[in-house]
Amino acid sequence: MSNDILTVLQTNAPTFSKGQRLIAKYITESYDKAAFMTASKLGKKVGVSESTVVRFAVELGYDGYPSMQKAIQEMVLNRLTSVQRIEVANDRFSDQDVVSMVLQADADKLRQTGEMLDREQFQGAVQAILDTDRVYILGVRSAAPLAQFLGYYLNYMSPNIHVVTTSGEGEMFEKIVGIKPEDVVIAISFPRYSSATVKAAEYCASTGAKVIALTDSKLSPLGQSANFVLESKSDMVSLVDSLVAPMSVINALIVAIAARREQRLSRIFTALEGVWDQFHVYEKGEGPNVR
């Protein structure tokens, strides 16, 4: 069935009872808040019973209320403004242990990512990076730290890494205009998707370069132009985008590439350890050094 809950509601509207019309009206007008309500809370909000809300979800064709709620959440992720995000978070976390809720949400996203990440796509992305001499990493706004972190470690493993974190389309295209078919592009974006990153990835794909997308779905604007899609769940936490799961996927990517470049890395880090010791780059204590 369609994942667009608003389309589902519109299609089925003529069959709704009075109570169902109340539920549908609230979801349509306040989907940003409904997305994070329990069936009980939604029922109380519109003046119907919890069982009425659950039956409504089933009659729409969903497995149950959680499936309908997931459809609403997926729809709103790319539509909420920053102000709406703050309002939703206040409703979601009011009178709750914020630390426990955020940590649990992150743990859930890690679990979901482990289940959804296509291992063949992952291995294909690793091989593409190993087979090229030049890699571009695109990530702007909240994805910029992810791009920089990945670029920091790939610089030890490949001779020609270009990290592009500028959010202006003109400047971004200036940095990638020389891309060639043998190059690889790693583009990172999650809801709300960056139009600059999406357009840049489409351009790179048109040149014949291999595009690796780190995003939330193969059907996302970024995933549709990619050769390999590394699917990872992100989440909205107030004004903040939770990117714990995408960071974990990046860690896995780095570890997988490092395992294939072990001899090169051993030579590099043997030399670097001498330099770090000579210039006291890291503090030395009784415990292990932390880099």
Q: Give average pLDDT, whole number.
A: 86
Largest sheet: number of strands, sense, barrel closure: 5 strands, parallel
Q: Report Rg.
A: 23 Å
What's the N-to-C terminus distance?
Answer: 49 Å
SSE string, helices as H and strands as E: HHHHHHHHHEHEHEHEEEEHH
Query: Numbering strands along the chain, what is their spatial order in the largest sheet?
Result: 2-1-3-4-5
Helical residue percent band: 55-70%
Helix tally equals: 14
Question: Using DSSP, what is the number of strands?
Answer: 7
- State the low-pLDDT regions, or none: none
Per DSSP, what share of the residues sits in E-state strands of 2 or more residues? 5-15%
Secondary structure class reads alpha/beta
Explain the overall architecture:
By secondary structure, the protein is of the alpha/beta class. It has helices at residues 5-12, 18-29, 31-34, 39-46, 50-59, 65-76, 82-93, 98-116, 119-130, 144-157, 169-176, 195-206, 244-260, 262-278; strands spanning 135-139, 161-164, 184-188, 210-215, 228-231, 235-237, 240-242. It has a five-stranded parallel sheet, sandwiched between helices. Strands 6-7 form a two-stranded antiparallel ribbon. Strand 1, helix 10 (144-157) and strand 2 (161-164) form a beta-alpha-beta unit. Helix 4 (39-46) crosses helix 5, helix 8 packs across helix 13 and helix 10 (144-157) packs parallel to helix 13 (244-260). It is elongated and about 75 Å long. It starts with a helix and ends in a 13-residue tail after the last helix. The model has no long low-confidence stretch (mean pLDDT 86).
